[in-house]
Design brief:
Blueprint: H1 4-56, H2 61-64, H3 73-83, H4 89-101, E1 107-108, E2 113-114, H5 115-150, H6 155-168, H7 172-186, H8 211-218, H9 221-258, H10 261-268, H11 273-303, H12 305-310, H13 316-325, H14 329-357, H15 359-364
Antiparallel strand pairs: 1-2
Helix pairs in contact: 1-14, 5-6, 5-9, 5-11, 6-9, 7-9, 8-9, 9-11, 10-11, 11-14, 13-14
């Protein structure tokens, strides 16, 4: 009788797997369709909100872009007509929606180039910085959170919470300035915080826009070394800032899983601590960490403006900040719209990944 139990359990497991494989195509397709349809109103609200926010900002761009320091009424009216600001708000909104539909985000008067071109060329720099920073943060926060949960209440747990709270207690630009002073001005270990690559090194051919990837694909090791060196300080600055939420979520999720019934059962069966922690506890604790990871990544993309400013990083954040200071509407509109679309896309990807990892999420939605 007892010898038949493993065989019966194995048969049930195989049967559940077959049912799950049959369920994936239709269930996953319906899940994706529901998520995509739910994102449409959000995108529409984002477009309208972007338009409204830019119209309520203080300052008149027509006065700023006039040719003379003290423009006359005729010059201001001409510039307003050229910018389309002389029309009613509903007309401006319709024109804005039409331009977005044709992938026309306007011209940047500060650079004289299309906004879409500027964003397309600068987005890889911001994505590369945020991705490397997230990888660094995960490399530290996940082991730290897991160890803090395993030894909950110990000195290591308290030390981990203090370490993870240091970064979030300081603004990113303060952390960046401190790191720049210590490692560039004082120790001389870091390169100057200007641009993504040394001015005396030729940039690799643009393939993806990510200098690390393009340098590797083209075999340009000098460019790879320079690009990697200039990524260290800004990525560490951003990683320190997001270390706390990732560590705290990992610790909280692990504590919840370690107190569950199936973990106690696994320990009662005599399984090793490594098997219990890695195979059972950590795999089940990854779901909330995955959600937090997506939220943190989207936050990093939107809040990297100050980091890019401190380190002279030519990303979309510094571009939008310069446009905002110059009262240049179109780049700021494009930046806000792009950040909103990226946030919606990341949240959609998180929902899909969550649904793939946990079929119950697909049924609940």
């Amino acid at each position: 009788m007892f010898a038949a139990l493993p065989t019966q359990a194995h048969a049930r497991l195989v049967r559940h797997r077959m049912l799950f494989l049959k369920e994936i195509p239709m269930g996953l397709v319906n899940f994706l369709l529901r998520r995509l349809l739910a994102a449409i109103p959000t995108v529409g609200a984002l477009v309208v909100a972007t338009f409204v926010i830019m119209r309520v900002l203080p300052g008149d761009p027509a006065i700023f872009f006039a040719s003379s320091p003290v423009p006359t009424a005729e010059e201001t009216a001409y510039v307003r007509q050229k910018l389309g600001l002389d029309r009613s708000v509903p007309e401006q909104l319709l024109i804005y929606l039409k331009d977005i539909g044709s992938a026309d985000l306007g011209m940047s008067f500060t650079t004289g180039r299309p906004v879409l071109t500027e964003l397309r060329e600068r987005l890889p720099a911001s994505l590369e910085l945020a991705t490397v920073a997230l990888i660094l943060a995960l490399t530290v926060s996940i082991p730290l959170g897991v160890a803090a949960a395993i030894w909950s209440g110990s000195l290591f747990d308290h030390a981990a919470r203090i370490i993870s709270s240091i970064g979030v207690s300081m603004p990113t630009f303060v952390t960046g300035l401190i790191l720049t002073y210590v490692f560039f001005l004082w120790l001389g270990l870091a390169p100057e915080p200007v641009d993504r690559i040394d001015m005396f090194i030729t940039a690799p051919p643009r393939i993806t826009g990510f200098l690390l990837i393009d340098s590797t694909l083209s075999g340009d090791w000098a460019a790879l070394q320079s690009a990697a060196g200039r990524l260290v300080l800004p990525s560490v600055t951003m990683a320190i800032f997001v270390l706390s939420p990732l560590t705290r979520m990992t610790r909280s999720a692990m504590l919840g899983v370690l107190s569950s019934d199936f973990v106690r059962t696994a320990r009662a069966m005599g399984l090793s601590d490594r098997t219990v922690y890695v195979r059972y506890a950590f795999r089940n604790a990854l779901l909330p960490v995955l959600t937090t990871m997506g939220i943190v990544f989207s936050t990093m993309l939107g809040s990297n403006v100050l980091v890019e400013r401190v380190f002279g990083w030519p990303g979309i954040g510094s571009f939008a900040l310069n446009a905002l200071v110059a009262s240049d509407y179109a780049p700021v509109q494009g930046f806000v719209l792009l950040m909103g679309l990226l946030l919606i896309g990341i949240n959609l990807a998180i929902d899909v990944a969550y649904g793939l990892a946990d079929p119950r999420a697909r049924r609940a939605s």
